[in-house]
Design brief:
Number of domains: 2
Shape: elongated
Structural class: mainly beta
Strand order of the largest sheet: 1-2-3
Largest sheet: 3 strands, antiparallel
Strand content: 35-45%
Order of helices and strands: HEEEEEEHEEEEEEH
Distance between the termini: 46 Å
Length: about 180
C-alpha cells in the first residue's frame, strides 16, 4: 500500500508480487525451468519456496516481449510477475530469456512462395529465417493478426506462430498473395 492510508495501488488490489533479482532465482531443471522464490505467505511473512517447474506467460507478447512476464505454478496460479527480464540479473535472466524464446518460437516469414486456398483452408509454402516451411491455415482471414500497419502474425492449424515483421518489405509477388486476407 502507498504512504497515504486511503490510496491503494493496482498491486494492492490485485496482490501482485513482483519478482526481481532479490526475491527470485531461476534455474534449469533438466529440460524445464525451475525457480526458488521468496514470497509472502498468507500472514504476510516471507517464505522461500522451491518450484521444480514454473511456466512463463507474456502479458503483452507482441509489443513488450521482455516485460510483464507472469510466472505460474503447475496449477496455473500466478506466483509473481517479472516487470522486466533485465531486472533478474545475468544468470536468472538468461534462463528466463531462453525459456521465453523456446515457448514463443516464431519464425519470421521473408517470402511467400505459394498460397493456395481450397474448402476453407489455405496452404502456405514460405521462406523464413528458419528455412523453407509449409503450413496450413483454417479460415485464413481470421488466422492472420495485423499488429500494426506494417506487422502481422499468422497462426496455423497446429497453433504455431509466424511473424511478418514488415509487410512493406515483402516482395511484390508475396504481398499480392497475402493482401486479399489483410
Amino acid at each position: 500500500m502507498s504512504d497515504n492510508k486511503n490510496v491503494y495501488t493496482l498491486a494492492d488490489a490485485a496482490q501482485i508480487v513482483y519478482l526481481t533479482e532479490e526475491n527470485a532465482k531461476f534455474f534449469k531443471n533438466g529440460d524445464f525451468l525451475g525457480a526458488s522464490l521468496t514470497l509472502p505467505d498468507e500472514e504476510g511473512n516471507l517464505k522461500t519456496e522451491r518450484f521444480e517447474r514454473v511456466w512463463l506467460h507474456r502479458s503483452f507478447p507482441f509489443n513488450m516481449p521482455w516485460e510483464y512476464i507472469s510466472v505460474q505454478n503447475k496449477d496455473q496460479e500466478e506466483l509473481g510477475l517479472i516487470r522486466k527480464v533485465s531486472e533478474l540479473g545475468e544468470g536468472s535472466g538468461a534462463f528466463v530469456k531462453e525459456e521465453l524464446l523456446r515457448k514463443y518460437y516464431t519464425p519470421k516469414i521473408i517470402k511467400i512462395k505459394t498460397l493456395k486456398e481450397t474448402r476453407g483452408f489455405s496452404f502456405w509454402q514460405v521462406i523464413s529465417d528458419a528455412g523453407e516451411l509449409s503450413f496450413t491455415l483454417q479460415d485464413t482471414s481470421r488466422s492472420i493478426a495485423k499488429i500494426s500497419e506494417d506487422r502481422a502474425f499468422v497462426f496455423d492449424i497446429c497453433g504455431n506462430r509466424y511473424e511478418i515483421e514488415s509487410l512493406s518489405a515483402l516482395d511484390k509477388k508475396s504481398f499480392r498473395k497475402l493482401e486479399l486476407y489483410l
